[in-house]
Amino acid sequence: MSTWTNWAGNQHASRVSFNYPHCEFDLQEIVKRAVRSGERIKAIGSGHSFSGIAVSEQQLVDLTNYGELIEIDAEHHLVTVQAGMQLSTLNEILHRHGLAMPNLGDIAYQTIAGAISTSTHGTGAKLPGLAAQVTRLRVVLADATVIDCSAESNSELFDCARVGLGAIGLLSTITLRVVPAFTLAVIEEPMRVDDLIANLDHHVETNDHFEFFWVPHTGWALTKRNNRTNGPAKPMGKMSHWYAKTLIENYAFGAVCMLGRVRPSLIPKLAKALPASPRNEYSDSSFKIFASKRIVKFYEMEYAIPRQACAEALNRVRRLVDD
After folding, report:
1. How far does the chain reach from its first CA to its final CA, in angstroms?
2. 3-27 pLDDT, tens per residue?
């Protein structure tokens, strides 16, 4: 028996048995054994969900050894992979073939299966989540049968399994529709929160991707605008990248968070003392822009609300924090 903890360290499972499939037949055998013993079984992906969705006190499936490329069709912009491939690996493979994911979330550590099963999404008003890229799945059901499904075949299973939360079965192989490789131009700069909220619709509509991080107890937010460009990549220099993305966004921020946990009364002062972020402009391959380096572990909640309610919701959160 072993123990398991997710990346953030807020979910745990004890006295669990691990299974390490190498092929689809292994997945079927794992399911059969679990059924015979009357035990629950869950795939754990890379552990980057903050909820207890992957927690089982009995059988866990680790897909580390089940993450190979099966087929890539550059002409039709399709790629088929085993469920355990990490997004970071897929991004590199696609890049070598002149292809890319049309959108990505904030990190690339997730497995493909985990990313689509939990409805991982990126930014961009005109772009859906990663599950919308799926064109075909092979799913191992609770009776260990393997079903091929798509929008044309076994469509109900397909629609459910794309964002199945691990409840429909074990995903075996996944086919994704991808796009020609592209470059993103980035502008990162601080903005006044009041101005940002007042012009939120403008920022969302005039940028391919827009996101911001409000710094609580301050009137400032850190913004990021990503837009497609036909120009050449002009990435940040190594030292500038290390300073902005490693030192400031991770180590300095992590130190402030750690001190705030020890002395919560200092949080307002610590927030105001965070180093001011300079304006940065650069461009690079899309997958290098979408995904961020996350060294500092954190907990996260996500809520989807209508855009027309965003201003009121954000201002309520600001008042809640300030009070």
Report:
1. 47
2. 989 888 888 888 889 999 999 999 9
Tell me how far apart the alpha carbons of residues 206 and 210 are, in angstroms, rounded to a whole number.
Answer: 9
Question: What value does the mean pLDDT take over residues 58-84?
Answer: 97
Contact yes or no for 281/186 (Cβ under 8 A): yes
Question: Residue 275: its pLDDT value, please?
Answer: 58
Number of other residues whose CB lies within 10 A of the CB of residue 103: 22
Class of domain 69-180: alpha beta
Is residue 48 within 8 Å of residue 91, measured between CB atoms?
no
CA-based angle 108:270:312, to the nearest 5? 70
Q: Please check whether residue 146 is in contact with residue 24, taking contact to mean a CB–CB distance below 8 angstroms.
A: yes
Calculate the alpha carbon distances from 269 to 212, 274, 316 in Å.
21, 9, 21
Is residue 72 within 8 A of residue 95, CB to CB? The reply is no
How do the domains of the chain map onto residue ranges? 2-61, 69-180, 183-322
Question: Is pLDDT of 228 > 80?
Answer: yes
Sign of CA dihedral 88, 94, 96, 102: negative
Mean pLDDT, all residues of the chain: 93
Q: Please check whether residue 253 is in contact with residue 296, taking contact to mean a CB–CB distance below 8 angstroms.
A: yes
- Tell how strand 209-214 and strand 146-150 pair up: unpaired
Name residue, tokens 């799926």.
134
Q: Which residue has the tokens 């299974």?
A: 19
Question: How many Å apart are CA 63 and CA 23, to the nearest integer?
Answer: 10
Q: What is the rounded CA–CA span in Å between residue 140 and residue 131?
A: 18
Overall fold of domain 2-61:
3.30.43
